[in-house]
Specification:
With about 180 residues, this protein is mainly alpha-helical. The protein has seven helices and two strands, in the order H-H-E-E-H-H-H-H-H.
Length: about 180
């Protein structure tokens, strides 16, 4: 349902020239997500990109970009798997895009420095939220101890989130430098 709303809203809000940017964002995030870091309990951690996509393209287009990335990974590369594709879209796509865009939107009229700081924090926080949601879902499925899986997921994703924050700030700094306020 959320994806259907995102398609409709993206068609309404994005201009024809912005659709190629969505494709570029899909390719960039897809490539960044190919780096996987093992986490205890049979899961993995990697860069996500949802906050960056939502900050650059808007929340609805950001959700579609993340859905496309996750679907291609699951369908063509068996990364993540088909059985958990919906959960992966929720955790890595929808949650990260909502948090990233929501925090950034609060400071959208602020100074460049504030925008960059919040973009970095939003990227880090979105990674942590996605990891926490995954940990809770693993516990609810009965496959993991809550304390163990949350500590493992948040521990690894704290570092991944820092990398994601740096990438998001660098990309946003470039965009802000080339785009008039």
């Amino acid at each position: 349902m959320t994806i259907a709303v995102a398609v409709s809203r993206t068609n309404e809000s994005l201009g024809e020239k912005q659709f190629p940017l969505m494709g570029i964002m899909v390719a960039f995030i897809f490539a960044a997500q190919m780096l996987n870091f093992p986490v205890a309990g049979g899961t993995s951690g990697h860069l996500l990109g949802g906050a960056l996509a939502a900050i650059v393209l808007g929340p609805w287009a950001g959700m579609l970009v993340m859905t496309a990335v996750i679907a291609v990974q699951a369908l063509l590369f068996q990364d993540g798997g088909l059985l958990v594709m919906g959960t992966n879209i929720l955790n890595m796509g929808l949650i990260t895009a909502m948090i990233g865009y929501g925090l950034y939107r609060i400071v959208s009229t602020s100074s460049r420095r504030t925008k960059l700081a919040v973009a970095g924090f939003a990227a880090w926080l979105s990674v942590m939220a996605g990891a926490l949601a995954t940990g809770i879902q693993l516990w609810m499925s009965g496959t993991s101890n809550l304390q163990a899986v949350v500590i493992a997921m948040l521990g690894v994703h704290t570092l991944i989130g820092i990398g994601e924050a740096l990438i998001t700030v660098a990309a946003q700094a470039f965009i802000l430098r080339t785009r008039p306020d």
